[in-house]
Amino acid sequence: MIPYSPREGRYHDLDVPGGIYFWTNGFWPGMLWQMYEATGEEAYRTAAEGVEERLDETLQGFEGLHHDVGFMFLLSSVANYRKTGNMDSRRRSLHATNLLAGRFNPAGKFIRAWNEAGFIADADVSGWMIIDCLMNIPLLYWAAQETKDPRFTHIAVSHAKTAQQYIVREDGSCNHIVIFDSQTGEFLDNPGGQGFEKDSSWSRGQSWAVYGFALSYRHTGDVSFLNGTNIMKSCILTC
Q1: Distance between CA atoms of 128 and 230, rounded to whole angstroms?
Q2: Residues annotated as catalytic (active site), given as ranges
Q3: Residues 6+ apart with CB under 8 A from 225
């Protein structure tokens, strides 16, 4: 079972848009692995591995996957591999990593968000990047270390640098979405997205930014990521 939100006091398995492809489906096995780490109780490990096996369907189906494969597989299959050395989990993790890396736009130096924007009819999202993806690029950092292939780090750092330049404002607040010309990489717009309106800040996205840049600093030692995190934390306290 992959619970999401309850109705009438009960959780319903995959009661979400997108079903097995939904972006939060890695959170539950992630929590189960934390419980297994804390208690050693095999029931948590068994449940986590069961969800991970179900996520195999997304790798086979492919078309429903987008930028959130980090959320889905870093917390499930990478966690399993780190803890148990399961080679099937390693393969799943590297498969997901290559799918994420394949979304990189070299003209704009960003990882494309989504496959389509359901909340904006007929929108061309081929040039869209979003702040959320900072929490997915640690999958790339992991793969670079695991395979000794620096391409994954280059992609992750390029995306984070683009986010620094175009998503984070001088006062430390953040846009949700930035739109580029997908052919040239030219900046086009920064719509409100899940913020209240254009130029507003979105609290969850602000948290993605603080956490995501801190993780990029952890993996790279690039102090600019840490400095930006401190500015954004100040914004959270004052905005």
Answers
A1: 26
A2: 68, 132
A3: 160, 164, 213, 214, 216, 217
- The model's pLDDT over 84-132, given as tens digits with 9 standing for 90+, comes to 999 999 999 999 999 999 999 999 999 999 987 655 656 789 999 999 9
Closest CA to 99 of 133, 63, 135: 63
Distance, CA of 88 to CA of 92 (rounded, Å): 6
> CA-based angle 142:166:218, to the nearest 5?
30
- In degrees, rounded to 5, the angle at the alpha carbon of residue 139 between the alpha carbons of residues 84 and 205 is 125
Using CA atoms, how far apart are residues 115 and 126, in angstroms rounded to an integer? 8
pTM value is 0.92
Q: Which residue has the tokens 């780190």?
A: 82
Contact of 51 with 29, CB cutoff 8 Å? yes
193-237 pLDDT, tens digit each: 888 888 888 889 999 999 999 999 999 999 999 886 665 655 555
